[in-house]
């Protein structure tokens, strides 16, 4: 946790995407970070974005991405650019010595992401992706229930299901960058599926599955971009997971974990119903003859700041450790980003191969 004597990490916002509004607010709320600059390809667009989001007059306005890379008063960059631009600008940011908070999906494929990671490692900068729910205090509590030796209440998790779906409008389906193959060509799989895949990996302690297979029924648009899909993941010891993501279905953002001793359910894992607290339920040791003798128990977890600000706070903490104490970048975050991207790639490959099973062994 930051103290009042810490110098805030100066973060530049590289791109004016809609999600940058949420993260801009998060940077303001994080106690150890501050917005130092904003950049767009147009100076006027950057000025308009800064004004609309209440940026302080001290925030520098850059009319090009190159300019913000050269700004010596920027420690780190939040990059919400289209996925197809990530490899170029994240590599250039790392080469400029800027730490990187990169929107998800992190790249179009794992080969591109490996270039980003190599640049970060070479230049000693921290990389983290923008999966906000991973930083909510509830997620830490879920981890305790799943893996803590003193709790481990649901036993060995045998089956995981996670989904993230949002019903978009016709304008989105025609014009949003997430349906354009040259911008965010991974579509719903990269945008929404990223969260569902990360949840399945999280519930399996980030162990990669051995086999991934897309489910029948994938929906593509005319350009071949995925609008809706599902997939199954399986591990050698019999654990399984299913994921679902869609731009065409009603809102759903759930995790369910079925274990040997109980079940765990989260209804709102991507965006909690409330900013100040979040809940989940467990149901333990239910038998066959009277399954509801033990009713589900609701658990509530409070947070002082919203999950996106928790993410920025952790990112800024890691950057501060490197900047002020000479620490090494934390490899956990790029590692789980890479694993998530590997599963995204495998599902996409399976879709293209008519739901063929894809092995992740050795990847």
Automatic annotation (TrEMBL):
It comes from the Eukaryota. InterPro entries: Gfo/Idh/MocA-like_OxRdtase_N, GFO_IDH_MocA-like_dom, NAD(P)-bd_dom_sf. It comes from Brassica campestris (Field mustard). Belongs to the Gfo/Idh/MocA family. Residues 9-128 form the Gfo/Idh/MocA-like oxidoreductase N-terminal domain. Residues 154-264 form the GFO/IDH/MocA-like oxidoreductase domain. GO terms for molecular function: nucleotide binding. The lineage of its organism: Eukaryota, Viridiplantae, Streptophyta, Embryophyta, Tracheophyta. It holds the Pfam family GFO_IDH_MocA. SUPFAM superfamilies: Glyceraldehyde-3-phosphate dehydrogenase-like, C-terminal domain (SSF55347), NAD(P)-binding Rossmann-fold domains (SSF51735). This is Gfo/Idh/MocA-like oxidoreductase N-terminal domain-containing protein.
């Amino acid at each position: 946790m930051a103290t009042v004597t810490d110098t805030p990490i100066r973060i530049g916002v590289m791109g004016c995407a809609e999600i940058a509004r949420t993260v801009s607010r998060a940077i303001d709320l994080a106690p150890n970070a501050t917005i130092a600059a904003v950049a767009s390809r147009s100076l006027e667009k950057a000025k308009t974005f800064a004004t609309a989001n209440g940026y302080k007059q001290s925030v520098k306005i850059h009319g090009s991405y190159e300019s913000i890379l050269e700004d010596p008063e920027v420690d780190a960059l939040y990059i919400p650019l289209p996925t197809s631009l990530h490899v170029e600008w994240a590599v250039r940011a790392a080469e400029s010595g800027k730490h990187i908070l990169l929107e998800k999906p992190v790249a179009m494929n794992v080969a591109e992401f490996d270039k980003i990671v190599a640049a970060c490692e070479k230049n000693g900068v921290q990389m983290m992706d923008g999966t906000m729910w991973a930083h909510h205090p509830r997620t830490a509590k879920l981890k305790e229930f799943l893996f803590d030796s003193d709790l481990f209440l649901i036993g060995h998790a045998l089956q995981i299901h996670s989904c993230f779906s949002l019903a978009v409008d016709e304008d989105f389906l025609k014009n949003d960058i997430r349906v354009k193959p040259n911008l965010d060509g991974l579509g719903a799989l990269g945008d929404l599926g990223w969260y569902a895949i990360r949840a399945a990996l999280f519930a399996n302690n980030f162990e990669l599955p051995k086999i991934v297979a897309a489910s029948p029924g994938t929906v593509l648009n005319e350009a071949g971009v995925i609008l809706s899909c599902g997939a199954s993941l399986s591990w050698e010891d019999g654990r399984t997971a299913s994921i679902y993501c869609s731009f065409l279905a009603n809102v759903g953002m759930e995790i369910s974990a079925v274990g040997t001793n109980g079940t765990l359910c989260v209804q709102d894992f991507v965006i909690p119903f409330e900013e100040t607290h979040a809940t989940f339920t467990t149901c333990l040791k239910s038998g066959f003859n009277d399954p509801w003798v033990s009713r589900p128990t609701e658990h509530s977890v409070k947070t002082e700041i919203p999950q996106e600000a928790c993410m920025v706070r952790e990112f800024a903490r890691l950057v501060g450790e490197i900047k002020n104490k000479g620490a090494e970048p934390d490899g956990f975050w790029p590692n789980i980003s890479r694993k998530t991207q590997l599963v995204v790639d495998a599902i996409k490959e399976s879709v293209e191969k008519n739901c063929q099973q894809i092995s992740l062994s050795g990847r």
